[in-house]
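User: Continuing from earlier, I have the next pair ready.

Assistant: Great, send them over.

User: Here they are, in order.

Assistant: Folding the first of the pair now:
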Amino acid sequence: MESSILTIALAGNPNSGKTTIFNNLTGTRQKVGNWPGVTVEKKEGTIHRHGYALKIVDLPGTYSLTPFSIEEIVARDFILDESPDVVIDIIDASNLERSLYLATQLRELDCRLLFALNMADVARERGIKIDADKLSELLDLPVVFTVGNRNEGIDGLLESAIALAESDVEIPRRRRVKYSKDIEVAIAEIRERLVGGATGELPYNPRWIAIKLLENDTVVRERAAAAMGQGAGALMDLVDRHRATLRDLYDDDPEIIMTDERYGFIAGIVREAVTTSTTHRRVDISRNIDLVLTNRLLGLPVFIFFIWAMFQLTFSLGAYPMAWIESGIGLLSGGLTRALPQGLFRDFLMDGLIAGVGSVIVFLPNILILFFCIALFEDTGYMARAAFLMDKIMHLIGLHGKSFIPMLMGFGCNVPAVMAARTLESERDRILTILITPFMSCSAKLPVYIILAGTFFGAQAGSVIFGIYLMGIALSILTGRLFRSTLLKGEEAPFVMELPPYRAPMLKSLMIHMWDRSKMFLKKMTGVILVGSVVVWGLSAFPRNIDYSVDYEGRIAFIREAYEASAAEASAGQRREALQAEMDRRVDEVRQARDMERAEKSYMGRLGKFMAPVFHPLGIDWRGSVALLTGFAAKEIVVSTLGILHAAGQGSEALQAALGESGMTRLSALSMMLFVLLYMPCLATVSAIRRETGSTRWMLFSIGYSTALAWGVAFAVYQGGRLLGLA
């Protein structure tokens, strides 16, 4: 090879272990973004092996290359248009027949193809014996056994891929699927017309184009017509005649006929290369586990327990590293306070940057734990079971269990959750799922819950947060039922839930998933949260000249003079220490009162006072109303805004103490948490809703409906609680 860079694409079905192999190969050397022009996640990483820089590209998991979904189009276009040096198809060895359907379609693309029979250990446990040499001979391409979650066979897989890329042998043509005589005649005639009538260069192999035209592939049809120029009409007439002939002969659509013939080819391959031991006692562990976890009586309570345990763990275990980070922030702020002269710059640094960002970054451990638990659900295969369990409940709103997967992802971040709705086949299902997904409490709302629940509910904080999350699920279901019967009427799309086998998660894979998602939180820290904190500080710090209602400096001077007079008369050291402590307490009270009046008379305070009548019926004061307004940019800013407006200094403990003395009650704290749960999504989620629905109308509707619902629910809880004497 002239170039020292090789591009290797990883293809395969969902749940085949493709991402596990990608993580093993690339580790932390991954770059995550979006494919050009679409919002499907793109992962790639570069490693150096055997003298080459290997660019590994993880294609979206698909069951076929038929362009029914964005993922299938992205995977196929990358292989066809980017021409990677090698394509590795990751195949589930324990479910070979199903996996080989995508494999046969990849073989027809005439790319340099290598099969990785992954999960070979699971196949052996099930008594499945695969003759790799025979399979390689029949398919006319290399076959390698791997066990991705144990990192077995990965080096051999790379060596085989490099050897395939280095070989100068022309890609074999006998690997194609042989169809019935009638179909082969049609393919030959269409191919001949393509080769003889094209005015420009054909975009792909003419036989493959002919097959796709018979299958009525709209993407290939458009590209073939462009290459044929004026002869496009005659070509399409020929294709339509052959399609009509095949439909008459077989009484079915040509694409279904050709799918059946591919499966017939696959069945022959499996008979030749695979044997199943009749004496092998197969113990299907996944099926035995599912007897409990998907049981119609036990399954849902177990799922609810797992979700409760996740949030309890997030709150309780995360408290320890939170305290360590707070101590570090306290040391930093204390050192800077002593080192910097008093003035506007120190106020900006301490009260704007450190207080704003510091009040949010302390929640990084909680975010990491939450994302770790979500990755654990995904990697073990339990996420699919959760969707299966929720299937009946989702049917109440005219959706199926697959819609619950984006909603579960919303516990991490609403943006990828909204994007995940594109996997749903029905447009109505996609829009409905997108509209109700923001009711799932994302990780950005978690700091608000932790502060308020930790301040007012103590040891019950974890259970209260769990209840907030359940409320989000319940209201999303009720909202879905309402929309399905009014705005989004239509037939329910059929769906069969695939339950992948349970797998022991790899710690490395869990850490990679956890870190990838947590990086979004850290990027916010240096982006929107930092900017938002500075803006909030600026609006709360100006104007500088405040006409105070009380001479606070005079009061402080009076308190100190009284202390000096009392200390002069006191004889015992212990008495003087008590007087000093009392003086410090009174001075702090005066300073806090001064800071509170400054905040009220600042630009931010004026804005809060203007908004206060809207939020007063919810038990939320003007500072809370301003914090909620800033939360439109990012929900984490709600915490930093509260910290700045309450003049709480650095750290969550100082903010909790300030909130406890602010007049806020348990009931008003609960009201505010519910409002945060439901009101308009953050700016990034709003943009994702606009992009995924393709409609500004739906975006504005989502903002208006969610905010109105938030106000109504918070009002009902607060005023209802007061009537019951719970305030």
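And the other member of the pair:
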Amino acid sequence: MGKIELLAPAGNMDALVAAVKNGADAVYVGGKKFGARNFAANFDYDEMIEAIKYCHLYGVKIYVTVNTIVYENEIKEVLNYIEFLHTNNVDALIMQDIGLISLVRKKYPNMEIHASTQVHNHNDEGLSLLKKMGVKRAVLARELSLSEIKNLKTDIEKEVFIHGALCISYSGCCLFSAMHGRRSGNRGECVGSCRLPYRLYENGKEVKTEGEYLLSTKSLCTLKDIDKIIESGVTSLKIEGRMKSKEYVGYITKLYREKIDSYYLKKEFKVSDEEIENIKKLYNRELTQGYIFDNYGKNLMNIKTSNHIGIILGSVLEISKNKIKIKLEKDLNQEDGIRFDNDLGLIVNRLYDEKGLLVSSVKKGNIAYIDNKIGLKNAKIVRKTQDIELIREINKYKERKVKIAIKLEAKIGERLKVTFIDNKNEITEYGSIITSAINAPTSFERIKEQIEKLGTSPFIASKTTIEMDENIFVPIKELNEIRRSLSHDLEEKRKYFVPHEVIINEIKEKEIQDDNNNPLEISIFVRNEEQLKTCINNKVDYIFTSDYSLYKKYKNKNIYYRTRRVSDNKANYENENLLVTELGALEKYCNNNNIITDYFLNVVNKSSITFFKEKNAKYVTLSPEVNIDIIKLLGNIKNISLMIYGRVELMVSKYCPMNMIIENDNKKCDLCTKNVYALKDKDDNIYPIVNEIHLTHILDSQNLDLLDNLPDYLDFGIRNFRLDLYDEKENEIENLIKVIRYSYEHRNNK
């Protein structure tokens, strides 16, 4: 196995240059559309070409995120964009939308694809499906432990996150932002719902907590144990941070580069206190080693704040209308950023010493004064959130050089021959015929000095071989011209490196139009036996339950067991009726079971519908993110199901707030079988919590209700309508069923 890849983020060209110069093996970036970080600056077409050339010049791979779900009316545009990337030599695409992945594999078979973490890559069966599709690499879920990663046997490249922000939702599969911010996390517009304040309720009563940011994780940092991750057998180590500054990207890349290189050189592997402090200054919400090193509860979460907290700078001694007096525990410099414990912050433009004199810095242990330009009235602690001296030091990084070998031949009667060789190219240029020296001969040392004088070029000579006759004359001017010419030509060759042959196939999507005269069918997800009985009594066509014992008790052709959203698939459900929630279960059971796909698979376009139907799905459930206009674009397609009423599951998490807050970090508890829990936001919206064997499911605070649009959906050809129940009773369920059936009958009787 080759040396592990260090993969760095870049939200703009400055960050990309910082990543490359500080030792990244690969960089991932996004375009102006179709990337999961729409609020980064990102790269337009010209900037993307520049970025590709720059990376390839230094032998760095460049991956582009096309990792959003893509609506039907965007398919042509996204394929044109991917073709642009392919023909301009991007090394790989990072993608989420399964339908689009399938389409791209057919149209651009030589385009390398990496499955984004949002594909929910957490078990071997899912990885196996991706490999069969032609996906080269899977970005693993951040929830997997080191032992779980080691136990994955599928022969596919595996990429893991080693540093940066964490999503509290498993694999980042979250509908919170889409349903409550009207900006889709699956489309790069996440509003950060997990970073907002919430209160925990037990049986309707508020539980006292130490903080109110109950879904906010600390920042991942695995630097101290990076050797253990290297030894796990993964291919790539990924730093999160396309929204971060070039200084953050540069410094974090530099640290991990040094630690990775130390590992391979078998040098002492130690992380200094200063390095950790510098990381904290650049960005942190406190640091955690994450699930990969079995950090749970308080080791994972910072519920006191969701902001960058920096490091403690000192304590506030006095506050007046004009000045703030601070006792310093760390040095304070003009242009540093600071934040007080009430979340007010500022950039220190004017700094005063204890005598009231304007100064550029005040050393730790002393008193400093700053202008009270934010109207601060009370505070105890002040933190440093930007260190200007650290930023200046980071920006002094050295120029990265590409090592080349140089061969020079100078034989009397033959033309001067110079060859530059890198790891992929060998280019040669010839000069004039070598003659004997009339006066002073050109020495070996002079020739070597001149040919190695690569100056501001991106190259450095690692090995120079010179074969020359004695007493010869080599024109130094000509030697310099050849060197400059070879440097230019090699630079151009590297910039236009082609990672894979460009193949573009003409494809025709299968026609999946159907008539819209199919019979009405109703699907209902139930949460208890009473709801299930009501559905049976009302002749509901498909009944789903996540309670396997309940499924077995009432099992018939219309009752389906909903598989777990996070599963190692060790349980055997062969020949069962299954509502599958993730790719692993689909792959394992698609040939021997009655399969319906759940809305968690994010189906929003025809290509995804086609893909899942080809995997023998009886019905394909659309994502709740599709609106009426998007559904209309799908046409009359048989065997798709639309959730038309119920509580959307916003997220599933490995984190349990009840364990951490009530049970004080215990990994196992039975609280959720005894009590009813919920989160309440600042607007008093209540989000029910449902626990399922160490997974926390958070439901929407209100029901999705599209019943008024039933006539339109029927006109579009949809005939299977899904209801997801929470606490509805018999009468409510029967009324919902009647509304759907009445709409269908009324349409047919027109």
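Worth noting for the second one:
The mean pLDDT is 94. The chain has four domains: 5-166+217-293, 311-394, 402-495, 521-748.
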